[in-house]
């Protein structure tokens, strides 16, 4: 076969595309697997999900933060984060108290129990991802964002509700399953 042969070139291009697809899917598999394993480990070792650990670590500096401030630090929507915070409050890891300047606004801070748990914890996977993204050039971050968004749109996943990694509101999920059956 000669390189200028159109059938040879078409076969080579198809193999290259297939190779890229294989590599991209393997990257997604590694990412999902890492998140899944880290979540199971955090649950086993610390009694919380990766998402809960991630939120807890954002309060590690000792500052009191509102839910909206914490949502900014975790790069998520406050409605998704509120599920995580509620669980952490229920576990006694976070305490909420009214803000001195506005009693309607709640401030979140670590409890002694939350600090003890963090002493045993390693850096969460979402934090490792954020560190890796921060090390990338801004134009590469923008290109990655654009390409992932395009991929999800083409796969009809662009409008799915975004939750923190491996953290779901069980009550909401039960309601959604009930609605789907009904």
Protein model, in words:
With about 180 residues, the protein is mainly alpha-helical. The chain has a domain at about 30-125: Arc Repressor Mutant, subunit A. Helix content is about 65%, strand content about 10%. It is built from 8 helices and 2 strands; from the N terminus they run H-H-H-H-E-E-H-H-H-H. The chain has helices at about 5-45, 50-55, 65-75, 80-90, 110-120, 125-135, 140-155, 170-180, and strands spanning about 95-100, 100-110. A two-stranded antiparallel sheet has the order 1-2. Helix 2 crosses helix 4 (about 80-90) and helix 3 (about 65-75) packs across helix 4 (about 80-90).
Q: Helices, strands, pairings?
A:
Layout lengths: L5 H41 L3 H8 L9 H8 L3 H13 L3 E6 L2 E9 L1 H9 L4 H11 L2 H17 L15 H12 L1
List keywords for this structure.
two-stranded antiparallel ribbon; Arc Repressor Mutant, subunit A; 2 strands; 65% helix; mainly alpha
Outline of this structure?
The chain is mostly helical and 182 residues long.
Q: Report the sheet with the most strands, covering strand number, pairing sense and barrel closure.
A: 2 strands, antiparallel
Beta-strand percentage? 5-15%
Terminal-residue CA separation: 60 Å
Low-pLDDT segments: 172-181
Radius of gyration: 21 Å
User: Can you count the helices?
Assistant: 8
Quaternary structure state of the chains depicted: single chain
Helix-strand makeup class: mainly alpha
> How many extended strands?
2
CATH fold-level topology of the domain at 30-123 = Arc Repressor Mutant, subunit A
- Average pLDDT rating: 83
> What is the assigned CATH homologous superfamily of the domain at 30-123?
Winged helix-like DNA-binding domain superfamily/Winged helix DNA-binding domain
In the sheet with the most strands, the strands line up as: 1-2
- Please identify, by name, the CATH architecture of the domain at 30-123: Orthogonal Bundle
Highest-level CATH class of the domain at 30-123 = Mainly Alpha
Strand/helix succession: HHHHEEHHHH
**Shape call:** elongated
**What share of residues is helical?**
55-70%
């Amino acid at each position: 076969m000669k390189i200028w042969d159109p059938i040879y070139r078409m076969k080579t291009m198809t193999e290259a595309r297939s190779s890229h697809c294989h590599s991209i899917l393997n990257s997604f598999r590694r990412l999902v697997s890492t998140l899944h394993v880290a979540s199971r480990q955090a649950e086993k070792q610390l009694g919380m999900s990766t998402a809960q650990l991630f939120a807890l670590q954002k309060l590690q500096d000792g500052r009191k933060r509102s839910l909206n401030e914490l949502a900014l630090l975790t790069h998520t929507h406050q409605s998704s984060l509120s599920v995580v915070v509620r669980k952490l409050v229920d576990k006694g890891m976070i305490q909420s108290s009214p803000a001195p300047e506005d009693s309607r606004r709640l401030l979140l801070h670590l409890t002694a129990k939350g600090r003890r748990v963090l002493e045993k914890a390693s850096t969460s996977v979402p934090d490792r991802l954020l560190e890796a993204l921060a090390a990338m050039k801004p134009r590469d971050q923008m290109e990655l964002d654009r390409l992932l968004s395009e991929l999800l749109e083409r796969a009809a996943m662009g409008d799915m509700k975004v939750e923190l990694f491996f953290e779901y509101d069980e009550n909401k999920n039960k309601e959604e399953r009930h609605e789907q059956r009904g």
